[in-house]
């Protein structure tokens, strides 16, 4: 067969490589696989309307496609095994036929033959299949390379450039490093900041949220501007003490997309100092607020409260409600992490915040349930009664949950025991082990036989004679060899003594059991 010419093959591979940001070798491999699928479709179409498809799924596993970039074409090659008699023309070739070309060929050797069909015979359906498979393979290669490039990225914060808009999402170009090509990433609506102005070619700092591992239309990367990790990254870049380790960020609570338009985005950051002489809050704010202002500018004017972390829950809760002034914090239920915060009447609205944003962020930051109370109107006795009721309800719920978990554990144990019992009674046919129990043995075939029967069968197979308890042969029974085939016809009747002994033994057994017909037996 002649080479099938594909004019412009080299330029095609280069264009696809540049457009899809894939190495040329990857594009060539995808093209070879697509052409092979097209050849397979061509062979199958020869039987359309004539008979059923005679080819199995892996029938064409010995076929391959070779690209010739110099002459810009391709060939379909088949690896065939040399045999005496050919049973499959696509997988085997006769020894006599090969020896016409290579006299030293032997049975079992493999030869590669050119089986390329004519270009006109390839057909429209085969060409369409080649095009579809090529597009799919290129998408798979892109997804695989993106996963390998971004899955283990040490720095999850990237610089992104706005490319286009799709529905409510923003498609942005991100790069994993200097000199690396840009990859499209999707910024969903829920991860955008309300103060951001997304315009073409505008750049933003984004947090790499997810690398999709499943095939999907559109970008495989999902980025976010509302993730708390972005705030941590910005502080680490602006505050040298955090990079050195003398100041650490303990917790971050962020509300980048408030439920109401009247409330702006806000973040609370709890920091602590490893060295006593270092002020963690002052280090994060900087001289005249220079450091925190850089973070605020990057987040487009988002309000940021930097508070000092404390191991004392009361002090930590009071600091988290900044800028409100707190009179006292009562830990009414430490086990359930419930606290009452007493504030002056003029600080009540400031502590709660607009639409509850300040106390909501403080609760997220500390992990405690906070009730803001007016210190002038606080009745400790009545509040303690309410808290006692709440504690009782919580303990009752925990007891019910523990009881339900215990009941579930008992049910699971009983179910496991029942499964084991059923498995012992009815073993699977493929089990090779032998189960013994209740006087029965379960063989690998699933047959049920008694233990006595198994022992008797074993004794017969080993040629052991039946014996009494003292090891001597039973009266009237003697071990004898089986007659040979020559003397089988000359065998005479059994001795009378043996018959009489057997009848007498049967009569004695019947007498012991009280069976009827005793006299007749005698």
Give your account of this protein's structure:
- With 522 residues, the protein is an alpha+beta fold.
- Helices cover 38% and strands 21% of the residues.
- The chain contains 15 helices and 19 strands.
- The protein has helices at residues 9-20, 24-45, 95-99, 124-150, 228-238, 240-244, 280-285, 290-298, 313-320, 348-352, 357-366, 380-425, 451-462, 496-513, 518-521, and strands at residues 4-5, 63-68, 73-83, 92-94, 110-114, 157-166, 169-174, 183-187, 203-211, 221-224, 247-255, 266-273, 303-308, 328-333, 338-343, 369-374, 435-437, 440-442, 448-450.
- A hairpin with a 2-residue loop joins strand 17 and strand 18 (440-442).
- Helix 2 (24-45) runs antiparallel to helix 4 (124-150), helix 5 (228-238) packs antiparallel against helix 8 and helix 9 packs antiparallel against helix 11 (357-366).
- The termini are far apart.
- The relative contact order is 0.05.
Topology:
Blueprint: E1 4-5, H1 9-20, H2 24-45, E2 63-68, E3 73-83, E4 92-94, H3 95-99, E5 110-114, H4 124-150, E6 157-166, E7 169-174, E8 183-187, E9 203-211, E10 221-224, H5 228-238, H6 240-244, E11 247-255, E12 266-273, H7 280-285, H8 290-298, E13 303-308, H9 313-320, E14 328-333, E15 338-343, H10 348-352, H11 357-366, E16 369-374, H12 380-425, E17 435-437, E18 440-442, E19 448-450, H13 451-462, H14 496-513, H15 518-521
Parallel strand pairs: 3-4, 8-10, 12-13, 15-16
Antiparallel strand pairs: 1-3, 2-3, 3-5, 6-7, 6-9, 7-8, 9-10, 11-12, 14-15, 17-18, 18-19
């Amino acid at each position: 067969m002649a080479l099938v010419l594909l004019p412009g093959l080299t330029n095609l591979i280069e264009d696809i490589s540049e457009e899809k940001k894939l190495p040329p070798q990857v594009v060539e491999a995808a093209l070879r696989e697509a052409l092979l699928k097209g050849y397979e479709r061509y062979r199958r179409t020869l039987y359309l309307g004539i008979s059923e498809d005679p080819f199995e799924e892996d029938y064409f596993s010995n076929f391959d496609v070779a690209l010739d970039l110099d002459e810009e074409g391709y060939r379909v090659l088949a690896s065939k095994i040399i045999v005496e008699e050919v049973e499959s023309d696509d997988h085997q070739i006769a020894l006599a036929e090969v020896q016409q070309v290579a006299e030293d060929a032997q049975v079992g050797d493999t030869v590669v033959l050119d089986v390329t069909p004519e270009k006109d015979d390839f057909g429209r359906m085969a060409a369409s299949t080649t095009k579809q498979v090529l597009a799919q393979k290129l998408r798979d290669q892109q997804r695989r390379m993106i996963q390998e490039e971004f899955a283990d990225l040490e720095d999850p914060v990237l610089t992104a450039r706005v490319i286009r808009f799709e529905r409510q999402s923003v498609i942005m170009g991100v790069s994993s490093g200097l000199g690396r090509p840009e990859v499209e990433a999707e910024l969903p609506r829920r991860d955008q900041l309300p103060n951001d102005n997304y315009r073409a070619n505008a750049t933003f700092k984004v947090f790499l949220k997810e690398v999709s591992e499943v095939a999907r239309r559109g970008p495989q990367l999902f980025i976010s501007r509302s993730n708390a990790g972005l705030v941590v990254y910005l502080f680490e870049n602006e505050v040298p003490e955090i990079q050195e380790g003398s100041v650490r960020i303990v917790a971050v609570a962020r509300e980048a997309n408030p439920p109401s338009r009247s409330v702006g985005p806000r973040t609370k950051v709890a920091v602590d100092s490893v060295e006593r002489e270092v002020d963690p809050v002052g280090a994060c704010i900087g001289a005249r607020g220079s450091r925190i202002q850089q973070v605020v500018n990057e987040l487009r004017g988002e309000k940021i409260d930097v508070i000092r972390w404390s191991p004392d829950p009361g002090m930590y809760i009071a600091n988290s409600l900044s800028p409100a002034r707190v009179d006292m914090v009562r830990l009414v239920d430490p086990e359930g992490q419930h606290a009452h915060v007493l504030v002056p009447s003029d600080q009540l609205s400031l502590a709660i915040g607009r639409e509850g944003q300040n106390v909501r962020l403080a609760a997220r930051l500390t992990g405690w349930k906070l009730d803001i109370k007016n210190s002038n109107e606080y009745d400790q006795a009545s509040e303690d009664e309410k808290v006692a009721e709440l504690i009782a309800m919580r303990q009752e719920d925990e007891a019910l949950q523990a009881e339900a978990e215990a009941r579930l554990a008992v049910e699971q144990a009983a179910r496991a025991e029942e499964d084991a019992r059923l498995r012992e009674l009815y073993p699977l046919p493929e089990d090779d082990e032998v189960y013994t129990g209740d006087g029965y043995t379960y063989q690998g075939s699933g047959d049920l036989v008694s233990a006595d029967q198994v022992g008797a069968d074993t004794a017969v197979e080993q040629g052991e004679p039946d014996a009494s308890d003292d090891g001597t042969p039973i009266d009237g029974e003697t071990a004898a060899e089986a007659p040979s085939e020559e003397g089988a016809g000359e065998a005479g009747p059994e001795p009378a003594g043996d018959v009489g002994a057997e009848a007498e033994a049967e009569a004695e057994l019947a007498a012991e059991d009280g069976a009827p017909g005793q006299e007749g037996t005698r």
